[in-house]
Structure formats: structure tokens, C-alpha cells
Amino acid sequence: MARMTSNQDRQSKDVRIAARYIPNNSRCILEHTNGSAAHAYECAGKFYAIMFWGTSAKPCQHYSYRTEDARNRAIWSFRESVEQSVTLRSKARADRKATPHTFRAGDIVNTSWGYDQTNVDFYIVTRVTSACVWVRPIASDYEATGFMSGKCWPAMPIRTTGEESRHVARGGYFSINGHSASLTTGEQHSSSYA
Known about the structure:
Layout: H1 6-21, E1 27-31, E2 37-43, E3 46-52, E4 61-65, H2 68-98, E5 108-113, E6 119-128, E7 132-138, E8 140-146, E9 149-154, E10 165-170, E11 173-176, E12 179-183, E13 188-191
Antiparallel strand pairs: 1-2, 2-3, 3-4, 5-6, 5-12, 6-7, 7-10, 8-9, 9-13, 10-11, 11-12
């Protein structure tokens, strides 16, 4: 017997959970390749529709309607909104892939991050491809301008302080350790309230 992958395990669990919300007397009246589904049933003189979309195990809509026609209109409206959303997401994904990054070897980038303080890290772009950017961390200089706060900038001459890492870039940004990196525009504010 073949062992299921974790993705298959999760999908079968989602199907079991979704089945828990679907009444036995319901019938599937919409099942689409985009992952949407709608089930209809009647109870106590009311017309019900329960609708799912994507990998969600719980229904995104579960309503009663006064007439069967009203229920059918709601289901087709749901289908149209899902199709529209799928189309918009596909277009946005294609646009992101089509937008080349603007980084060049030698550019200085920085990240700014922190909770109750502002940490700034600087990096130098060492090489680029059409989709990726390689960077190395560099040293920075700091000048205090107030209580536990100041400004910082890349140290000159540039001194690398770590190993090179690769990151996927889109437009004018990319992510380093979960923090957004962009071109350095001069001195950066820094603070430490630890």
C-alpha cells in the first residue's frame, strides 16, 4: 500500500472536515475546477445553499433563501465572484513575474525592522540575474542624535561581514530574513529601547 504524502493527508483531512458540514440530504449543484463547490438542500420549507472555495475545510457561505430561484441566483453569483477572483489573482501573478527587478551589482540596499526599536541592516548586491539578487551584509557606521536613537549609513570603505545569499526580487524590492529590502536612499534612522 502506497503511503500518502503530507499534502495528500491534509487534502483528505480537509475533505473529511468539509463533508461534516454538508447535510446528507443535500445535492452538489456546482463543482468547478477552480476549487469552488455548492451544495443545495431543503429543510422546513426553506431553501439552503452551502458553498466552499479553495482548500478551506469550512464553508465560506451557508445561507437559507425564501425561494429556490433566490438560492440559484446566489449560487451563480458566488460562482461568478470566484471566477473573477481567480482571474484577478492569475493576472496579478503574471504581472509580478513580468515586472523585472531594478537592482544592479554594486547597489547598496537596507532592511529596517524591529519591535519598539528600529534596526537597520545594510547589504551590497554582488550579482544579479533576471529574477534573483545575491547580497552580502556590510558594516555600518552610527551617530547618536538623541536618547537611544541616531542615524546610520554604510561604512566606507565597504567591508562585508557575512556570507552571500540569494533572494528572488520583483520590482524594487526583495525579502531578506522576512524583512523587505530596498535601495538605500541615504542615512537611516535607528533606535534601540532594549
